[in-house]
């Protein structure tokens, strides 16, 4: 598998073509950002930690019957993934109230949400990733009804797996986002799952162990990511 030209470079990851059109190389960089790119930094070891963390979680989801684009880790910072045609929506599940939900609805941070709240957002950085609904998605052709239903079902199925996984490590999975794409007619999970794209709190102290440590200048960002990984069984290199 040979790495070819750059396809796309985002805020924290780069994607490269390979000599096989069905596969891409996903590179996790040490870059991090928040507030739609207004706050940026490079954090040592972040790319390596997130690459290994993502591989572990994707393998857990695959074992639970949730199809993903992940194939295997190639190096400290790189993984081989299927070449998906991504749908331009983000699927967000909220098990506890935090972040934008608290600001929008005035509910108390940490409130348990039963059943979990599911939300769609349009993946569009210049617009600030606005919240959308099924009607928007259908009207503007971002996905069809079958894809909408399947994204919801797979995201909520993943939630059951992930809540249990982090609970076993004495952590609360507060919320997270997933993205999906099409591969040879099948809708499967793409992008990544790491502390960059979710909120995780210690079950006893409610200490934040995710990207909020960067957003709120709490310090020890990567140390917290590594602690999360160790608690769920990641054996970091």
UniProtKB/TrEMBL annotation:
Pathway: Purine metabolism; IMP biosynthesis via de novo pathway; 5-amino-1-(5-phospho-D-ribosyl)imidazole-4-carboxamide from 5-amino-1-(5-phospho-D-ribosyl)imidazole-4-carboxylate: step 1/2. Coiled coil: none annotated. It is an enzyme of class 6 (ligase). Pfam families: SAICAR_synt. Its EC number is 6.3.2.6. GO terms for molecular function: ATP binding; phosphoribosylaminoimidazolesuccinocarboxamide synthase activity. CDD domains: SAICAR_synt_PurC (cd01415). One of its GO terms (biological process) is 'de novo' IMP biosynthetic process. Transmembrane segments: none annotated. It catalyses: 5-amino-1-(5-phospho-D-ribosyl)imidazole-4-carboxylate + L-aspartate + ATP = (2S)-2-[5-amino-1-(5-phospho-beta-D-ribosyl)imidazole-4-carboxamido]succinate + ADP + phosphate + 2 H(+). Keywords: ATP-binding, Ligase, Nucleotide-binding, Purine biosynthesis. Residues 6-231 form the SAICAR synthetase/ADE2 N-terminal domain. GO terms for cellular component: cytosol. The keyword Aminoacyl-tRNA synthetase does not apply. Signal peptide: none annotated. Belongs to the SAICAR synthetase family. This is Phosphoribosylaminoimidazole-succinocarboxamide synthase. It comes from Natronospirillum operosum.
């Amino acid at each position: 598998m040979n790495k070819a030209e750059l396809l796309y470079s985002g805020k924290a990851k780069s994607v490269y073509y390979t000599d096989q059109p069905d596969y891409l190389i996903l590179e996790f960089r040490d870059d991090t950002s928040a507030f739609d790119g207004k706050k940026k930094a490079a954090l040592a070891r972040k790319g390596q930690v997130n690459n290994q963390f993502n591989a572990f979680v994707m393998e857990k989801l695959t074992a639970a019957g949730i199809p993903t684009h992940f194939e295997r880790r190639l190096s400290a910072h790189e993984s081989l993934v299927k070449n998906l045609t991504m749908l331009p929506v983000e699927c967000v599940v909220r098990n506890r109230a935090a972040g934008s939900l608290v600001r929008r609805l005035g509910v108390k941070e940490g409130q348990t949400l039963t059943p979990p709240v599911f939300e769609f957002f349009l993946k569009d950085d210049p617009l600030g990733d606005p919240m959308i609904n099924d009607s928007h998605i259908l009207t503007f052709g971002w996905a069809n009804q079958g894809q909408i239903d399947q994204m919801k079902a797979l995201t909520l199925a993943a939630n059951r797996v992930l809540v249990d996984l982090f609970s076993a490590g004495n952590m609360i999975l507060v919320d997270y986002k997933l993205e999906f794409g099409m591969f040879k007619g099948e809708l499967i999970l793409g992008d990544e799952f790491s502390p960059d794209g979710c909120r995780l709190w210690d079950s006893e102290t409610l200490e934040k162990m995710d990207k909020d440590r960067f957003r709120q200048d709490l310090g020890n960002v990567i140390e917290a990511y590594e602690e999360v990984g160790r608690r769920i069984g990641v054996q970091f290199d």
